[in-house]
Amino acid sequence: MKLEICDITKQYKDKRAVDHVSLTLTPGIWGLLGANGAGKTTLMRMIAGIQKPTSGCVRYDGIEIGTLKESYRDVFGYLPQEFGFYPGFHVWEYLEYIAALKGLGKAETKKKIEALLEMLSLQEVRKKQISKLSGGMKRRVGIAQAMLNDPEVLILDEPTSGLDPGERVRFRNLLSEFARGRIVLISTHIVSDVEYIATCNAIMKEGRIIATGETEKLVREVDGKVWNAQIDPRELAAFEQRVPVLNVYNKEDGDLQVRYLADTAVIPGSIKTEPRMEDLYLWLFPEHAREEEVI
């Protein structure tokens, strides 16, 4: 099983959203990381066959998806970034409707919906209107519809949007189980969504793939560049102007513990530490340094 993205480009009038992207996806979980506006959603829509590329193509097991038509949809599940639904539908009704569109029989539909409602903790809202659900609940319904036909290829665009931290963990565990023998592609700008479950990651910036590979290999790019150090709180603002700062922690003695990225130690007494995927992301996207609060 293989999904090939072959030199895909998407050109709009005044913008190239996707710029000559090539990837070969094999079974396992793949992370597509990038900031908002990097071109991830446009790429996902072309992989899903919803949007046509300006040039290049997508092949599934060596055949262009445009020629596969319905047979591609039979093996494919897709959760768009903006998940649409008919507001009057109850959860069960909506999933029945999607199952019918995917060609599932009645007995199989009932079995699949029951299993997915349990898997995604949606049993209690099965008869509730989707329009009245919370954002996280709606997202889980969207994930359920993408998985209804037990797809060989599952494409999820920002799947954890609206999920609380506990739901994110459960979702990652679910995907790890589901991905066996399947191709799962997750686009996200949240590193923790894929850091511990992705087989491989592709990092996208300004329409291009700038890095791809197994997580352990990717983080080697910042090996020896990740440091922990203590700093006076009054010096923090100036320090952040010099180097990317990922995390800042308050210490009991009043100083701050900072985790930062630099080729060499910037603060005396800095200690090298093992790099993580989050460190690589910050190295490649320094403009997003420490968007979270000091803790």
Description:
This protein has helices spanning 40-47, 65-68, 70-74, 91-101, 106-119, 135-147, 165-178, 215-219, 236-242, 277-284; strands at residues 3-11, 16-25, 28-33, 55-60, 63-64, 76-79, 153-157, 183-188, 200-205, 208-214, 226-231, 245-250, 256-261, 271-272. By secondary structure, it is of the alpha/beta class. It has two domains: 3-219, Rossmann fold, CATH 3.40.50; 223-288, no CATH class. A six-stranded mixed beta sheet has the order 6-7-8-3-9-10, sandwiched between helices. It has a four-stranded antiparallel beta sheet with strand order 2-1-4-5. Helix 4 packs across helix 5. The radius of gyration is 21 Å and the shape is globular. The mean pLDDT is 90.
> How large, in whole angstroms, is the Cα Rg?
21 Å
| CATH homology superfamily name of the largest domain | P-loop containing nucleotide triphosphate hydrolases
How many strand units? Answer: 14
CATH class identity of the largest domain: Alpha Beta
Structural class: alpha/beta
**What ranges have pLDDT less than 50 throughout 5 or more consecutive residues?**
none
Largest sheet: 6 strands, mixed
Kindly report how far apart the N and C termini lie.
45 Å
> How many helices in DSSP terms?
10
Amount of helix = 25-40%
Query: What's the structural domain tally?
Result: 2
From the coordinates shown, what is the CATH architecture of the largest domain? 3-Layer(aba) Sandwich
- What is the strand arrangement across the widest sheet? 6-7-8-3-9-10
Shape: globular
Return the CATH topology of the largest domain: Rossmann fold
Give average pLDDT, whole number.
90
